[in-house]
Each structure stands twice: as structure tokens, then as C-alpha cells.
């Protein structure tokens, strides 16, 4: 007699902050059957971070006073408390995620990469090298780090992306960084501190953004403080220009600008130009917005594949970016509630997430500027 295969109510793909956080929210729904698949280890993206890279948002333990740690993925946890640091490194944050997953007994199958996600009647079939899993809903939480974006310019193959260790290695002499937002300023300040002379190129001059209080559109306070320190050394130049070509020369590298000027460097220019959506095997199951990001309905669900949700920094709604942990964690409990209600489960326990400031289901309240 052949047994009927188990069908999960939900399968989360990815065990970073978005995957672990969503799984913890799903665990708050009575009787919901779910699991998590992870291609590597828990927090693999953060294990892959360059050793010199740290968080931009500070961790601080204020849970007892209704102020949940900005980098926490569960209301009752705090990276600052468990790690004893304010700006965690990648390895430190991965350790926090492992600790949270262990404490709350999150059902994770690591070392298992999802190779395909196929809609079936009433759900999905997810394939990996370990076989297939059936689930009524799938939450893609694969993150962006595996999808580095480089500028579409001549010679782009010569660039080192800021997500790789080569970009953070010692760079004596002159350094060129293409991109002037957080990652560009971060790595520029790093090399200035190491004694290099750095030129940052960005025609949009994001370092000058002074309007609006949303840190997704302006530099974080820590970045601004580091920027002022780097400028004070005289070894940092911020240039409002667009790079159009990179070439190798007998002395190093030459980056040609849109106005015809050339900036030279002793090492490959660094592309601090961010990441793509990182959708992997679910890329074709999402429609694409005009700006290239996946189109979502009000529940962070694919507009063309019902039951497929997105969790993590790739979320975009109207003019809103959810690219920090304290932002995209606002949607964990919302996704869990939608999945729980569809499974006819009791979702009342998720209101505790709202009370802790970790559940936002009215997006019209987001993006409001500070008065002063």
C-alpha cells in the first residue's frame, strides 16, 4: 500500500533573517505544518560576508521597554543581548540566527538547495537533490546577496563587486569605487582607513541626499559619521560623474567618465552597485515591475502565482523599500496570518507581534517623514 505524501501548509525557502523570522511567525499559528529549506547553513549569506563588513543598523536591548532590537527577527530576542555587540559582523549575526532557530525549534533542513518550484493543483512541488516537498504555500526568502549587480558599462568584467573578499583586501595607492550609497561609502571609508586614496563615482550624489527621513534613501547616521572622518583625511574624493568604461593599462586601471575625464587606480575598480532580486528558481513565477523588482500584491504574494510569497529585502511596495531587517520583519507575521487563515487555523497569537512593533499590515502608514 502506498502512503499519501505529506503536504505542508507552508514551506519557507532560505534560512537567513527573512526565512527564520517568517518561520517563527508561522510557528505562532496553531496547528500549522511547515518547514524550512536552506541551501547551506543557517545564516549562510552572513557567513559569506567579507570579514570586514558589519551591520549599518545598531543592535540594542530595549525589549523590556517595548523597543525591540532593530536587528531581531523575533520579538523576544535581541542580537545585542545574545552577542554583546552593537554592529554585528556577518559571522556574529549568523550565530544569532542559529541560536534563535535552536531555541524555538525551527524545523530546518539545511544543506538542501531548492532547484525548482512548480505550481501544482492546490499548491507547489519543490525539488531538491534530496527529493521533492509538497506545500500549499511557498515563501521565498532567498535574499539578494547571491545576485550581485554590476553596472552595464564597457569592461564591467574587470570590476570587483563589493560583496566579494577581493574588494575588501588591502588596496595600496589609488582606489576607485563606483556607487556612492551605503555599500560604496562603507567600502570607501574602509580603504581610506587603510591608507588608500579613494575616489567615489556616482552621478546621483546619494551622499548629498538630505530630504526625507527614510534611511533606504539617505545614508545612515553611522555612514555619515564615517564619511566625515574619511573626508577629513584628505584621501577621499566624492565625484558627481557616471562611469562608462573600465580598461586595464600598463600602470593599473582606467575608468572613463561620461564627460570624457579618466580616473586611474592601482587595482580593479570596486562596483558598489547593490544586488538584484535574487529569486533563483522562482524568478519566472513573479511578474516584474517597471523598475525590475518583483511585482507583489498587498500580501507580499506573487500577482501571477497565488500562494507564492516573498519575504526579505527584495520587497517593494509603491515607493517603499524593505531593505533593512527592521523593515522587512514587519511582514513576517502578515504573511503567516494570510497562510494561517487560508488553512483555517487560529492566528490570534500573531497579534503579539503587532504589540511588539513587528507587524505592519497597513502600508499607508509607512514612509512618513520625521518632523525634526
Give the CA-CA distance, first to last residue: 70 Å
The whole-number mean of residue pLDDT values reads 94
Number of strands: 17
Category by helix and strand content: alpha/beta
Give the total of domains: 2
The CATH architecture of the largest domain would be 3-Layer(bba) Sandwich
Helix percent band: 10-25%
What pattern of helices and strands is seen along the backbone? Answer: EHEHHHEEEEEHEHEHEEEEEEEEHHH
- The 3D shape can be described as globular
Relevant CATH superfamily of the largest domain: FAD/NAD(P)-binding domain
Write the layout of secondary structure elements.
Blueprint: E1 7-13, H1 17-27, E2 34-37, H2 44-47, H3 79-83, H4 90-103, E3 108-109, E4 114-120, E5 123-128, E6 131-140, E7 160-161, H5 165-168, E8 174-178, H6 182-193, E9 197-201, H7 221-232, E10 236-239, E11 243-248, E12 253-257, E13 262-265, E14 270-271, E15 308-310, E16 316-317, E17 320-321, H8 325-328, H9 332-342, H10 351-355
Parallel strand pairs: 1-2, 1-6, 2-3, 6-15, 7-14, 8-9, 8-14, 9-10
Antiparallel strand pairs: 4-5, 5-6, 11-12, 12-13, 16-17
Helix pairs in contact: 1-9, 6-7
Descriptive overview:
By secondary structure, this protein is α/β, with parallel strands linked by helices. The protein has 2 domains: 7-146 and 275-365, 3-Layer(bba) Sandwich (FAD/NAD(P)-binding domain); 156-271, FAD/NAD(P)-binding domain. It contains 10 helices and 17 strands. The chain has helices at residues 17-27, 44-47, 79-83, 90-103, 165-168, 182-193, 221-232, 325-328, 332-342, 351-355, and strands at residues 7-13, 34-37, 108-109, 114-120, 123-128, 131-140, 160-161, 174-178, 197-201, 236-239, 243-248, 253-257, 262-265, 270-271, 308-310, 316-317, 320-321. Strands 1, 2, 3, 4, 5, 6 and 15 form a 7-stranded mixed β-sheet that branches. A 5-stranded parallel β-sheet has the order 7-14-8-9-10. It has a 3-stranded antiparallel β-sheet with strand order 11-12-13, with no helix packed on it. It is globular and about 65 Å long. The chain starts with 6 loop residues before the first strand and ends in a 17-residue tail after the last helix.
